[in-house]
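Everyone, describe these structure tokens:
***
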Amino acid sequence: MFDSENRTELPLASKSAGCSCCSPAGHAQKAPAAVVISDAAAPSLRTFAVEGLTCGHCVQTVEKAVSALDGVESASVDLAAGSRSGLTVAGSVSDAAVRQAVTSAGYSLAAN
């Protein structure tokens, strides 16, 4: 669904550029549920749909927040600005912990 092998490196936005992630108003969305795709061949690899990401800074913020969780081996975001971005998490972390980390970073997982 999300091709992490062909990720496009995006520049970080400066706070003066007015990116929605760099202003307090950019973090208004919150969703209680998540779209989760499990890979049966790799049970510790899950993909979540994240809403509200608009730039490389948003990507970096979410990856850093999720990577800091105990049990996370890796966290990678494929940005789809204006749409749902894909967050792929490898490790033994719970979906609830991922949801909390994304929410705490100011973004939301897509509702079911």
